[in-house]
Design goal:
With about 325 residues, the protein is α+β, with helices and mostly antiparallel strands. About 50% of the residues lie in helices and about 10% in strands. The structure holds glutamic acid (GLU). The site of glutamic acid has 10 residues, from loops. This is Glutaminase.
Length: about 325
């Protein structure tokens, strides 16, 4: 089944990608992290990988980009592997907010003042503080090592320019982090926690890296190509649930209706998604729609999901 799907994807994808690319002009490249604004408005790329390592790719799939919020899924998994569910969910909730991803309003208004979920910025900053390690360098080293393993790519590293750019302009994230420290949610030094957070957001990947990482989630934590179990199934289940309920910002409900797959997007225009038991998928399209997701990327995924009946709902 997956082979014939691959054949059909091979035949359809190049033309469909070009059709979706026509929509990039309606989106906007993120500029609040100045370095991200250097990305090309018209870029669109996709890489789809199956359990045998066969892949189909199209468009600008070789363009490197930073993971941004996509990294939050995997730092959550690492924190769960380090400390277990009870410790993590003592500090972070499990519900969507309906607010912007960088909002602090509910931290003040809703007792006990913990972030609503691990995929909004407040939640992910908290999770960064929970990753095991004695110092920020050790935490960052462990995160990068884990990501390299999942992507099966030892060369994965940071985009230092994006890291610096975000660190210099991240005033809102700084306020969130200090608020969390005030609420007793963050115990460590705030600047150290932010350094870990900004570092994992600046890990640079291509669509192929995202596809391979997604493939591990599609196979419940085991890399189907090497057979190695990298994540306990329970934590994959938790991550995929958050991706479904909060992974596409305040368009997660719409994405669930139109595409019906667990996914996580980032402000760089990346989307990581998966077809359970079948494919890992990485997408890049820096022009974002009003909800902050890659405009052309979502367009392409909607079309693919409908054609191949991928929605799990
Ligand atoms: N590093 C970004 C920030 O904190 C991530 C946001 C995102 O991709 O949604 O603003």
């Amino acid at each position: 089944m997956s082979e014939s799907t691959m054949d059909r994807l091979n035949a359809l994808l190049p033309e469909w990608l070009e059709t979706s690319r026509l929509h990039t002009g309606q989106g906007k490249v993120a500029s609040y992290i100045p370095e991200l604004f250097k990305a090309s408005q018209d870029d669109l790329g996709i890489h789809i990988m199956d359990a045998e390592g066969n892949h189909v790719s199209a468009g600008d799939c070789g363009v490197p980009f930073t993971m941004q919020s996509i990294s939050k899924v995997f730092t959550l998994i690492l924190a769960l592997m380090d400390h277990g569910e009870e410790a993590v969910f003592f500090n972070v909730g499990k519900e969507p907010t309906g607010d912007d991803y960088d909002s602090m309003i509910k931290l003040e208004l809703v007792e006990p003042g913990i972030p609503f979920n691990p995929l909004i910025n407040a939640g992910a900053i908290t999770v960064s503080s929970l990753v095991g390690g004695d110092c920020k360098e050790e935490k960052s080293r462990r995160i990068l090592e884990f990501f390299r393993k999942l992507a099966h790519n030892e060369r994965l590293g940071y985009n230092e320019d994006v890291y610096r750019s975000e660190s210099e302009s991240g005033h809102l994230n700084r306020s969130l982090a200090y608020f969390l420290k005030h609420n007793g949610v963050i115990k460590d030094d705030v600047e150290d926690v932010l350094a870990v957070y900004f570092r994992h957001c600046s890990i640079e990947v291509t669509c192929a890296d995202l596809a391979r990482m997604a493939l591990v989630l599609a196979y419940n934590g085991t890399d189907p190509i090497t057979g190695e179990e990298l994540i306990p199934r329970r934590y994959v289940q938790i991550a995929k649930t958050f991706m479904t309920t909060c992974g596409m910002y305040n368009a997660s409900g719409e994405f669930a209706i139109e595409v019906g797959l667990p996914a996580k997007s980032g402000v760089s225009g990346g989307i990581l998604t998966l077809v359970p038991g079948q494919f890992g998928i990485g997408v890049i399209g820096p022009a974002l729609n009003r909800k902050g997701n890659s405009l052309a990327g979502v367009h392409l995924l909607e079309r693919l999901s409908k054609e191949f009946d991928w929605s799990f709902f």
